[in-house]
Every structure is written in C-alpha cells, then in structure tokens.
Amino acid sequence: MDHHHYLRLALTEAQKSPPKPTNFCVGALLVSPTSNPAILATGYTLECPGNTHAEQSCFIKLAASHGVAEEKLGPLLPEDVVLYTTMEPCNQRSPGNMTCVERILGLRRDDGTQAVKTVVCGVHEPEKFVGENQGRKRLADAGIEVMHVDGLEEQILAVATTGHGKNVA
Ligand code: ZN
Predict the structure, then answer these.
(1) Which of 23-27, 132-136, 157-161 has the lowest mean pLDDT?
(2) What amino acid positions are annotated as catalytic residues?
(3) What is the number of structural domains in the chain?
(4) Residue 148 sits in a domain of what CATH number?
(5) pTM of whole model > 0.85?
(6) Cβ atoms within 10 A of the Cβ of 84, count?
C-alpha cells in the first residue's frame, strides 16, 4: 500500500477545489487495494453541491454510483477500504453541517462495526478556523486508525490555503 502515492493523488484532487477565503482546499480518495480499480471514489472541497468537504464528496459520489443514500454506504464498502485525505477530517463545523469525523463514524457495516477503519492524512487541520482538532481522538476511540504520512505538508498547505490571500512578508 503506497500511502505516499495515493496522498499525492489526493493532492491533485485538492488542486481542483475552488479557492475561497473561508475554506481549505482539500482532496480525498477512497481506496481499496484489492479492488479493481483500487480507487473507488475521489473528492475535493466544494465538488458536490452545497458547502461540501472533500471526504463528504467522496462518500456522496460513491453512494450515488451505488444508487443509495450516503448513510447507506457503509455495508457496500470493501473490507480493506482506506480514506486518504490531504488534511485531517474536520471535527467542528458551523451549525447544520455534519463534520467529516461524524460522517466517517456514521458509516457502519450491517453488524454495526466501522466501515472505514483506516484514515491516512497529510497534515493536521490548521487551527485557524476551528481550534485544535479532537477528531483524531474520536476516531481512535472508535477503533479507526488515523495515520499521518510525512513529506507533502508544504505542498498540501500551499494548496489548502490558496484562497486565503497572500502573506505579506
Ligand atoms: Zn470535513
């Protein structure tokens, strides 16, 4: 499983996200190494209608391809599915928006176990908008492994903050 490879592909998704001062441009992939093709879905911030996040766009698109609602996606995911996201899944959003941590936690198999057991991310969520991200702990408490892959932080953050204006030195 080449985490770096898939994270780089997630970064190319992030680059498609329309830059906005109030969002991070994030990219995500759902990957199943034993499936053909291995990439089940791609997504980026604001790809799907509404104020959608990258992970959310992956879930919406994959659910739509199966003809089910997003919350019914869990049992359809392969056992080895991995969620790649350039930035750690969000744990706080404005009222009325479900967080990506909640969306991941909500994807259950028919026996009630978590459908996504591995999340690979490139950077922690910067504290600019939401303060410290407790999402990793919530996911870990549910038995979901959150892995951090080094090496792309600079590029990921540069893409994520494309719409935030230039820093004046
Ligand atoms: Zn999110």
Answers:
(1) 132-136
(2) 55
(3) 1
(4) 3.40.140.10
(5) yes
(6) 30
What sign for the dihedral angle of Cα 89, 91, 94, 99?
positive
Residue 85 lies in a domain: yes
Q: Rounded CA gap, 158 and 95, in Å?
A: 28
Tell whether 152 is covered by a domain. Answer: yes
Tokens of 102: 């909640």
What's the gap in Å between 169 CA and the centre of ligand 1? 30
User: Which range of residues forms the domain containing residue 106?
Assistant: 3-159
Classify strands 118-123 and 82-87 as parallel, antiparallel or unpaired.
parallel
In a domain, 120, yes or no: yes
Over residues 28-41, the pLDDT tens digits come to 999 999 999 999 99
Residue 151 Cα, ligand 1 centroid: separation in angstroms? 22
Distance CA(120)–CA(111), nearest Å, equals: 24
Note the maximum CA span of the chain: 55
